User: What shape does this take?
Amino acid sequence: MIYYGDFHIHSRFARATSKNLTLPLVDEYARKKGITVLGTGDFTHPQWFAEINQQLTPAPEPGLFVLKDTADDASTRFILSVEISSIYQQAGQGRRVHTLIMLPTLESADDFNRRLEARGAKLASDGRPIVGLSAKQVAEIAIAAHPQALIIPAHAWTPWFSIFGSMSGFDSLEECFGELTPRILAIETGLSSDPPMNWRLSGLDNVALISSSDAHSLAKIGREATKFDGELSYIGIGKALRRGAPTRASQRGDVETRLVGTIEFFPEEGKYHYDGHSAHQVRFSPTETKENKAICPVCGRRVTVGVLSRVEKLADRAEDFKPAGAPNYRSLVPLQEIIAESLGLKAGAQKVLSQYERLLEALGNELEVLLDAPPETIESASSPIIAEAIKRVRSGQLHIEPGYDGQYGTVHVFSDEDRQAFRSDKQTSLL
Assistant: This one.
């Protein structure tokens, strides 16, 4: 069985999130996006955990959950997940690391919550709780709550809050997790990096690379995801992560579940791909950062060093290196953005939303449209220019201005001239 997982989202009880993030709506949008297994997010928050207990029930597949009274093959399978924000001191330096924790039972999630509270965590303050515990201590608590806990460094390269972040992170997994490093089966690449960037570090050959959306709204669900083939269950996911590391490629053989690959943003679109200082619209490539000694030429302050520069600093391999056995990946642009770009409208425009729904009704779900649907089928369900735009995204024919210092990159499939020329060509072909 082929299925997609998006393990890292948030509820409406986390800061800066949509109030529409309820379990029924999250289930609906996961189906639209083509996501089979979705993280609940935020299970440490008392109100959200109460809703999880009230509205979810164990799925037929062990360790997963479904909305009550909706246990059919098409139902979204939920996996208990939460992102923990650790802010602490280690080796004389301030550290800020976000960790994704997944657990297989409500009892173990409740135990995890109680253990955090006993260590002083204020769980009701935010769906993504801030704790004064190290990432390693959070991992220890998760393992104590359940021996099959899954511990994954979240958005591993984000400058301010990640394991490898330029502003407050570490240079290796071992430096952060010590003797628990073998328990770290995977890391999230995050929106601003992709697998080829991570393949440049030999120190990551022992972990799988996964992608998740970190969605703060319904529309963002599934913008990044991880593809699996085989057993749909909590244990199956854990096995796939363990075997997804390049160093374990020879162990795969004919196994019941494997990590096939990931769905990625184009990393340039991420908010921290390049370096810079957004207050003064200063955006630097790694070379430009070195030339300017990482100083903003407008105000004289240090720029935020982004993901590409950080990878360059830690990399011990060439840019084109791919470890033997590493899973594949596909880089995509969300379908609503593609439709909006094609029509010259904003993504929230009613005409864009109507076209989006028509495509899903005709072809199934968003990932099916973006990855597999034949261009002629897309064209018959929409328009020639939308079909052409999806073809260009699939082949990476994009114009991207990289994101930096908290500003998303801008992605364009067509210039205004391209769009007009395409329409003119199509009109001519009909005469």
